[in-house]
């Protein structure tokens, strides 16, 4: 699977050029997009997730022209935004069952299997009966991933997932990403060099709306 981003540009109404002719190709594995605040990372991720249109450029996932075929994209993409939602006072397990039902999984056994797998991969089995509203920031982030996994996406995009997490929560979260990176394309953005160092098989550095460098997996390890 290959995500091809070609010549994306975006200037906001206030004149800020958030994407300046961005082109990059991303293949399977764990891709880290490293850059300081304001680099354009969120804009790039929202654009790939088709939540926001660029002024120009294109994005394709294998044969799918993402920006013009949103329906196909929704079937393969999972996007976790930087600010996660407000959750009702339901347990993680109840909420995931609810989301699985919304997805149209009518069979209870099938739903249970799906929910348990998502809870297991995200390391939430032990707290599955606790209210998500009362979860810590890191647990909520992991719950966000659990929710994405219900849709069985091929491509997972996570925007600054470790921002604001304490060291132990951060490690737990990175371990979850590492696990899902073995069978998904995972793109995550961060301003923390160590996140990329610990996780990525591929990386790019972004600043001022531009990709400054893109390293192949082998080079990436050396570059950091
Ligand atoms: P990030 O950590 O990704 O840089 P920001 O704190 O810059 O996030 O932005 C948070 C939200 O505010 C985003 O939805 C972003 O689109 C919006 N935003 C950021 N900068 C501006 C701006 N100058 N004018 C309007 N909205 C903005
Ligand atoms: P990052 O995620 O790397 O912090 P962003 O994509 O959030 O970068 O922002 C890139 C630049 O665009 C920043 O200067 C930010 O303030 C600006 N920006 C982001 N969203 C908006 C918006 N909705 N309106 C105006 N400016 C924005």
From TrEMBL:
GO molecular function: ATP binding
Keywords: ATP-binding, Nucleotide-binding, Transport
Domain of life of the organism encoding this protein: Bacteria
Signal peptide: none
ABC transporter domain ranges (all copies): 3-224
Record family assignment: Belongs to the ABC transporter superfamily.
Record-given protein name: ABC transporter ATP-binding protein
High-level lineage: Bacteria, Pseudomonadati, Balneolota, Balneolia, Balneolales
Span within the parent record: 1 to 224 of 296
């Amino acid at each position: 699977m290959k995500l091809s981003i070609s010549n994306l540009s975006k200037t906001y109404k206030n004149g800020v050029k958030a994407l300046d002719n961005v082109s990059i190709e991303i293949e399977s594995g764990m891709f880290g997009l490293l850059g300081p605040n304001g680099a354009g990372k969120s804009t790039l991720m929202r654009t790939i997730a088709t939540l926001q249109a660029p002024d120009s450029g294109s994005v394709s996932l294998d044969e799918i022209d993402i920006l013009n075929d949103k329906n196909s994209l929704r079937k393969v993409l999972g996007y976790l935004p930087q600010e996660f939602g407000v959750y009702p006072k339901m347990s993680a397990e109840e909420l995931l069952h609810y989301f699985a039902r919304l997805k149209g999984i009518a069979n209870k056994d099938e739903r249970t299997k799906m929910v348990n797998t998502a809870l297991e991969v995200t390391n939430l089995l032990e707290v599955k009966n606790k209210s998500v509203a009362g979860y810590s920031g890191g647990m909520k982030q992991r719950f966000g991933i659990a929710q994405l996994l219900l849709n069985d996406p091929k491509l997972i995009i996570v925007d600054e997932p470790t921002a604001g997490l304490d060291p132990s929560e951060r490690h737990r979260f990175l371990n979850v990403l590492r696990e899902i990176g073995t069978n998904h394309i995972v793109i995550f953005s961060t301003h923390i060099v160590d996140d990329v160092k610990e996780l990525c098989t591929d990386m790019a550095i972004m600043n001022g709306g531009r990709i400054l460098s893109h390293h192949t997996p082998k080079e990436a390890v050396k570059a950091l």
